[in-house]
Amino acid sequence: MTEIKKPLPVPDSESKPFWDGCNEEKLLIQHCKDCDKHIFYPRAVCPHCMSDQIEWVEASGKGKVYSYTIARRGAGPAFADDAPYVVALIDLDEGVRMMSNIVNCDVEAVRCDMPVKVVFEEREGMKLPMFELTE
């Protein structure tokens, strides 16, 4: 039987700095120099003030679980062996929200508002940001 590979992100011109940072185990997000707000997902202009004065900054990697679900069946054949796993929305301390997985824990232990920190998981030469519970 042929091994089914998990899909990997395909960086584009706007997201390449984010993925390059992940490969260096740095969680990079954007910051608007005009309105002083952080931005995620990567964009060409600030969604808050429409400025193009955006820079990349390293996030703390800390946050809280906003919401989550436990996938008890894999989302397709490539993820079948991973089930059960947690897919979560994480509110980073910088004020942006991102979707990721919570790893290295009992899936039944996850709750909203639990503190988390970023960890990086390597897949086929690319590092992906995941989160672990910190308490």
Task: Describe the protein in words.
The chain has 135 residues and is mainly β. The chain has one helix at 16-23, and strands spanning 28-32, 38-39, 54-58, 62-71, 85-92, 97-102, 115-123, 126-133. The strands form two sheets. The chain has a five-stranded antiparallel beta sheet with strand order 6-5-4-7-8, with helices on one face. The termini are far apart.
What would the keywords be for this entry?
mainly beta; five-stranded antiparallel sheet; three-stranded antiparallel sheet; 8 strands; 39% strand
Kindly state the number of beta strands.
Answer: 8
Low-confidence stretches: none
Q: State the helix count.
A: 1
Give the overall shape: globular
SS-based structural class?
mainly beta
Average of the residue pLDDT scores: 95
Strand order of the largest sheet: 6-5-4-7-8
| Integer-rounded radius of gyration | 16 Å
Q: Tell me the fraction of residues in β-strands, as a range.
A: 35-45%
What's the layout of helices and strands?
Layout: H1 16-23, E1 28-32, E2 38-39, E3 54-58, E4 62-71, E5 85-92, E6 97-102, E7 115-123, E8 126-133
Antiparallel strand pairs: 1-2, 1-3, 4-5, 4-7, 5-6, 7-8
Give a short synopsis of this structure.
6% of the residues lie in helices and 39% in strands. It is mainly beta and 135 residues long.
